[in-house]
Structure formats: structure tokens, C-alpha cells
Specification:
Blueprint (H helix, E strand, L loop, with lengths): L18 H6 L15 E4 L2 E5 L5 E5 L4 E5 L10 E5 L2 E5 L10 E6 L4 E6 L4 H4 L9 E8 L2 E8 L10 E4 L4 E3 L3 H15 L1
Length: 192
């Protein structure tokens, strides 16, 4: 590999004359210093990113081309992500028109989304407008399992996980005792 910048082409479906493209730009030669507030995650298949018109694409650097992904099930503004193999778990930020309880799973092999409605326990829901004014999801990966809990944005959550997505089975469940025991170890790894 070389240690130099390579120009990323504009996706062929992106119309650079739209208001969004004019506002956010179609010239991606400037590297953001904090990453993307909308969605930008590296997967085994390439870079998955939201482009200025609100669509999502997967950029394969090996061939220098984009693949269009189905539209996301919610607004991609400051989402939390976890990647396990060909699956990207995307949880929305609690703002705007998003249904905060809906978490999306993107299967990159088929380029399609599924969603799950996660029930927020009352003891966590009560904290949203009293001590957690800016809320996002904390997602942590343990093998093929992704553990999820809402909490203050940009901080590891102090609550136990409330939902688990198992990539191997494609199912959601409540956390097991083993998941709960593993949560603290994952938290330690996050803040180390």
C-alpha cells in the first residue's frame, strides 16, 4: 500500500445540483476533522457513507466504485453504529423525526435494511428528559452479538444493555446473564 491520498469519485446517482449537494458539497477533497455526523463507517466490504442527497452508498476502494444501498429506515443524523461481518447495526440519535426505539440492521450482502422496535424500560425512559437531554444509543460488540442501551450522547452508558442483536441468527432478544456480565468488560475496553 502507498501512503497517499486518492480521490474518491462522486457516486453516479448523486445529483450535484440539488440544494443538499450545494450546501454540503460534492467535492469530497476536504477531509472532515471529526468524521461524519450522518454516517461513515468502515466495513469489510468498504466505506459505508451517507452522501449529501441523503442516500447511502458503499465505496469499494479496490475498484474505485460506489454501490447504492437501500434508503435507511430513519434519518441518519449522528447515529451510533456497530459492525459485525456483513452487518451494520445503526441506531438513531434521539432528535428530529426519528423513532428512537427503532434500530436498523443493514445486511451489506443484500444491501437491504431490517428494523427492530426496542422497548425502552420505564426506569431508563424517565431519565431522558431529567438527566439525559442529549440521548443516543451505546452499541457494543461481543463476538456475533451487539448489545444496546440508550444513554447520554458521546459517553459510555451507565445502564445495563436492554437489547441484543445476534448476527449469527438474525434475531433480537433480551440480554442473558452472560451478556450482562460481559457488559462491564466491554465498557472498560471502550474507555481505556
Amino acid at each position: 500500500t502507498t501512503n497517499e491520498w486518492t480521490e474518491i469519485p462522486i457516486p453516479d446517482w448523486l445529483d450535484c445540483t440539488t440544494d443538499a449537494a450545494v450546501t454540503f458539497g460534492c467535492d469530497w477533497s476536504i477531509v472532515p476533522d471529526i468524521g461524519s455526523l450522518t454516517l461513515e463507517v468502515v466495513t469489510e466490504r468498504g466505506l459505508m457513507a451517507r452522501v449529501p442527497d441523503g442516500t447511502v452508498g458503499l465505496y469499494d476502494a479496490a475498484v474505485g466504485a460506489w454501490t447504492r444501498i437501500d434508503d435507511p429506515p430513519f434519518e441518519l443524523w449522528m447515529p451510533t453504529t456497530a459492525v459485525v461481518g456483513d452487518h451494520v447495526i445503526v441506531a438513531p440519535w434521539r432528535a428530529g423525526t426519528n423513532d428512537f426505539t427503532q434500530i436498523g440492521v443493514l445486511d451489506l450482502a443484500s444491501a437491504t435494511w431490517t428494523t427492530e422496535q426496542v422497548v425502552i424500560p420505564p426506569e431508563i425512559d424517565a431519565r431522558f428528559d431529567t438527566e439525559w437531554f442529549d440521548v443516543s444509543w451505546d452499541l457494543r460488540t461481543a463476538g456475533s452479538r451487539v448489545l444496546a442501551v440508550p444513554g447520554p450522547s458521546f459517553q459510555p452508558s451507565t445502564a445495563d444493555p436492554i437489547a441484543v442483536y445476534d448476527v449469527a441468527t438474525g434475531t433480537w432478544s433480551t440480554p442473558t446473564e452472560a451478556d450482562l456480565a460481559n457488559w462491564d468488560a466491554l465498557a472498560t475496553n471502550l474507555t481505556a
